[in-house]
Amino acid sequence: MNLKDKTALITGAGQGIGKACAEVFAQRGARLILLDKNRRTVSHVARELESQGADVTFRVIDLTHTQPLLKVIDELLAAFRIDILVNNAGFDRPGVTAKIDKSDYNAVLSIHLGVPFLLSKLLLPRMRANKWGRIINVSSIYGLMGAKGEVAYAAAKAGVLGLTKTLAREGGRDGVTINAVVPGMIRTPPIMRMPEKYRDPIIAESMLGRIGEPEEVARAVAFLASDDASYITGTDIKVSGGWGI
Q1: Which residues does residue 111 pair with via DSSP β-bridges, in sequence order?
Q2: Would 222 be classed as within a structural domain?
Q3: Could you tell me the CATH number of the domain that includes residue 51?
Q4: How would residue 245 be classed by pLDDT, with cut points 50, 70 and 90?
């Protein structure tokens, strides 16, 4: 799964799955563009990977602020041919339907669904013109199953799967594949902040009986970004330890 001479843009790259994707892509030789709103975490990831010989550019940006994002993408497209887009950034605002504030609902949809749409809108035409490209969207098992108290997050992640299939229909004839990964319970900072009494029963539902590691998701993303996955598009890979089958 060699990604040498490919440039990958990864959102939410300062921690968790995004950080793991940056690390795995660097190991496979990709040039990296890392986007995150947290300067401290994303700069640390960039410095760490540069010390290992990786070619890394990073930008600090709130992806939900459209005009600054458009400016950053214009600058990046002027400097790089972006071959791979990993839509990973996100956050959660838990709540049941009757109680969640509409602004919280919209905020979750904006980062998880609106941002992947906008970045795909900006980058897919370039990939099609280049006759090669990869877009990998990070969804969630909640997007398939739903989850009590996660009306916004589950709806957004289900939407990501629909977006993935639709984009795949648009890009396929021009050599661009678009797929999703569907993580289960992964050892990320938000998950580890959950009280054990809520987290452990969910982990127990996994067929493997353990929590997943960010690197396990990142390896699936790297596979979909590589030529080894050249005949795979419009689908999703569950990285859930069997949870949700």
Answers
A1: none
A2: yes
A3: 3.40.50.720
A4: confident
